[in-house]
Amino acid sequence: MSVLPMLDHQRSPFGGTSFSRAYTPYGATADASGPTLGFCGQPRERVTGIYPLGSGHRCFSPVLLRFQTPDQLSPFGKGGINAYGYCNGDPVNRWDPGGRSGEVIMSTLLNAVTARDAAKGLHQTFHQRNEIQARQRHSTDPKVLNIVKPTLTREVSEVAAVVVPTLGTVSGAIALASGPALPMVGMVSVFVGLIAWGVGKVAKRRERIQGEDPQYYIKHKTGQEQNRRIAIFNEVNDHLKEKLPGKVPSVDVSPNEVIAPAENVRALV
Fold first, then answer.
1. Are 107 and 177 members of one domain?
2. How far is CA 188 from CA 57, 74, 171, 194, in A?
3. Hey, which bits of the chain come out as E strands?
4. 105 and 212: one domain?
C-alpha cells in the first residue's frame, strides 16, 4: 500500500493516511509503523532504532543522543567539540544526513585559510603587474624590458584559487548554520582551490625561466615599440664595441631615428 506522508521542516515524516508519529528532539520515536524513512528523512532500523547515516558511514543513536563512532576527521582534541556529538547539540534546527558534520567544519576552515592566502598572492600579482608595466612604459633599458609580467594563466589560476575556496567557505557556513551537511561540496572546493594554487605556482616558475632569456623582450614585445628598438640598437652597439674596441663610435639616438623593425635586428644581439 502506498503511503503519502506529511513532512516537517527537517523532512521527517510525522503523519499520513495510516500512521501518526512523534519524535524527540534527537529523533527517537516509539512508533515503528509507517514508512521506513524516519528522522530527517533518513532510513531507520526498525528493531534498534539506529540511523545508519551516509549509507552506513556512521550510525546515529537517537536514544544515546550521539553517534556510535567518532568523527575521524575531527581536528579537535581534549576539551574541544565532541567528536561523537550530533549537529553540535542543535538537532532541532540542523540535520546531518551524511554523518559528516565534522568534515564540513574542517573543510570550511581549510577553504577559509586557502582563500585568505590565495587572496594575498593575487593582490601581490596585480601589484607586481602594474609596477612592471609602469617601469617598462618609458624604459629603454633591456634589463627592465626583459622583466616578465605575470601571465594570464597565473592570474586566472590565482583568481580561481580565491573564488572557489570562498564559495566553499560560504557553502560550509550555510550548511553549519541552517542546512544539511554536504561535506563533498567543501572538500571538492578545497581540492580545486589547491589545484588552482599549484597551477599558479607552476606559471610563476615558468615566468622566472622566461626572464632568464636575454631576448625575451624582443620575442614578446614588452614595453613600447620605439623604446624596444632603441634598446636593441644600444645592445648591438655595445656588442660591437666589445668585439671591436676603439673602432665603433658612440652614437646617441632618439626614438624617431631608430626606424628598423625590432625583428630585423634580433639575430644581431
1. yes
2. 19, 18, 12, 10
3. 6-7, 13-15, 51-52, 58-61, 66-67
4. yes
What are the tens digits of pLDDT across the range 171-230? Answer: 777 766 655 545 556 667 777 877 888 888 898 889 888 888 888 888 887 888 888 888
User: What backbone torsions phi and psi does residue 85 show, to the nearest 5 degrees?
Assistant: -70, 155
pTM of the model: 0.53
Report yes or no: 183 and 109 within 8 Å, Cβ to Cβ.
Answer: no
Number of domains in the chain: 3
Burial pattern 222-242, b for ≥16 Cβ within 10 A else e, equals bbbebbbbbbbbbbeeeeeee
Same domain for 206 and 232, yes or no, is no
SS3 95: strand
How many helices and strands (H and E) does the chain possess? 7, 5
Query: Which residue intervals of 13-99 are DSSP H helices?
Result: 53-56
| Domain of 235, in residue numbers | 224-268
The residue from 98, 117, 140 where one domain ends is 98
Contacts of 47 (CB under 8 A, 6+ apart): none
What stretches in the chain show pLDDT beneath 50?
A: 1, 77-80, 181, 255, 258-269
> Taking a C-beta distance cutoff of 8 angstroms, is the pair 91, 27 a contact?
yes
Q: How far apart are CA 187 and CA 165, in angstroms?
A: 9
For the chain, how big is the Rg over CA atoms in Å?
Answer: 32
Same domain? For 151 and 137 the reply is yes
C-alpha cell at 67: 553517534
Distance from the Cα of residue 144 to its chain's centroid? 33
Question: Three-class SS of residue 142?
Answer: helix
Reported as type and span, the H/E element at residue 110 is helix 101-137
